[in-house]
């Protein structure tokens, strides 16, 4: 098995920006899901600012993720998680996310960490890191964050629900909330079922309350 190194990206990684964007967009097409569009310029800015994490095997691109700051630093999100198809199913996404999470807590120690995703793998990884599922009202109201959804194929659903819900599930980690024992609430079967119900109900335009605060 090839060895993979995970590191904080910088200018020396600019050459991977194009490939990162095309793997993200090709994977979204294969999954048939919506996704916020990223440009190589944007990815390079993240690298330059020390807000991107890259995984390489020798000089071959293996994976990527980046940090975004919202609501004047009150929130951060870890976005654009991607593992090259040649490196999937061997725990790399988990390692990249964990690396990003630790880097982000050092760089933005008081910021709440959140993500929105339709991906079960990401929900699983996030919950292992201590994120909790939340309604969109708990996430940033920074319009710049939500405008990232405009390039997603599900954007019409988000606007038709007044930005209160969509096919993505919101997840939040609050570093200032005292951590009790590591809670093992995650149940893959339940999450899969909830995702299915949510998709069916949103498609049929019915109201839905998934989690009560
Ligand atoms: C999703 C993705 C990042 C997973 O990468 P990976 O390196 O294969 O994931 P890992 O091997 O670290 O798996 C982490 C966990 O998720 C599970 N998992 C991985 N892919 C999965 C999938 N497609 N569906 C459900 N669970 C999955 C694994 O079984 C593992 O769980 P475990 O710890 O109980 O064994 C990768 O498939 C990818 O880049 N997909 C396209 C882009 C994408 O979907 N990004 C997320 C945007 S929200």
Automatic annotation (TrEMBL):
InterPro entries: Acyl_CoA_acyltransferase, GNAT_dom. Pfam families: Acetyltransf_1. Residues 41-96 form the N-acetyltransferase domain. Transmembrane segments: none annotated. GO terms for molecular function: acyltransferase activity, transferring groups other than amino-acyl groups. This is N-acetyltransferase domain-containing protein. It comes from Aquimarina spongiae.
